[in-house]
Amino acid sequence: MRRPSFLNLLPLLIFLGGCIEPRHEYLLSPNNASTIPYQPIPMVSDSLPAGHYLNFWLGTGSANDQGVDNVSAFSLSYHRSHNLSSFQAFYGGGIRIGSYNMADYLKTKYNDSYGYPFTMPMYDTVVHIPPANDFYGEFDIHGGINVVLPFDKGEWRPIGIEMAAEKEFGQYYQFRKNLPDTMADIIFKNNLTATLGIYTDIMGKTSRGIEFGYKVGYGIQLNSTGDFTKVQQSGFFPLTYLSQTFHLTDHRLTWFIQLNIGIYASSLQTGFSYRIGK
Q1: pLDDT tens track of the chain, all 278 residues?
Q2: What are the helix (H) ranges across the chain?
Q3: How far apart are CA 96 and CA 15, in angstroms?
Q4: The whole model's pTM is what?
Q5: What is the DSSP-derived secondary structure letter of residue 188?
Q6: Structural domain contains residue 1
Q7: Three-state DSSP class for 234?
Q8: Does 11 fall in a domain?
């Protein structure tokens, strides 16, 4: 039996290749799905009406369609927390420095005037964005408030609301701002983002006074569609994320690890907060 040669299979491979969904180019904010890291608040049983915190975290993640871009950053921030009877609150601000590593993007289409698929298609390059590693930074303010329900050896924060606003600067923003609209499927042209989220957090305490907890949050980016190009694409909005955080506090020091999964973005953040005073 004669074996099929590669040339015999080439038309089939071309046909199957045409059925594969091409990668889109979505150049969004570098903090998409990673805007609000964990902010510790003393437990009610700590009998601390307020606290001052210095915070540091490192993060890495993916962005763009199919997660082809890489984002890495670190952050320094400050926040103040309050225990207010049945409520708790926090507010603060900080700075984030990072890099946005863009993958090579080549968008092509074939000229079907030659009778494809019965003849070899002729491909024409439409768009090419070369790979780049761009610096970015941002200043942010953030805050939140939650209900608290203490119980024996722990407490539950059943519902909380948190918000953040970030002002971006750096090479990646300048690249998006100056890139022609036709070069990508969707480009976020603004450098100001706002995020609103809800969360629940349950905490326990050991006999040695070590506190541990698990927080789940869901958030949405509040920017209008006017901040994006080509918003007529259906199914793109809203930009939302789900976060899960494990945190542990030993006296003044809190460690956390947070996983964020969003629309065209995901990230892993880990860091610590140190309570510097009441």
Answers
A1: 445 444 454 454 444 444 456 789 999 999 998 888 999 999 999 999 999 999 999 999 999 999 999 999 999 999 999 999 899 999 999 999 999 999 999 887 655 555 555 555 555 667 889 999 999 999 999 999 999 999 999 999 999 999 999 999 999 999 999 999 989 999 999 999 999 999 999 999 999 999 999 999 999 999 999 999 987 677 788 999 999 999 999 999 999 999 999 999 999 999 999 999 88
A2: 6-19, 171-178
A3: 46
A4: 0.85
A5: B
A6: no
A7: coil
A8: yes
C-alpha distance across the termini of the chain, in Å:
84
- Token pair in block for residue 27: 């150049």
Classify residue 265: in a domain, yes or no: yes
CB neighbourhood size of 126 (10 A): 11
Count of beta carbons in the 10 Å neighbourhood of residue 119: 11
Q: Is 182 within a domain?
A: yes
Residue type, 58: L
Judge whether 226 and 192 are in contact, CB under 8 Å: no
Closest CA to 183 of 145, 227, 219, 129: 129
- Give the number of domains in the chain: 1
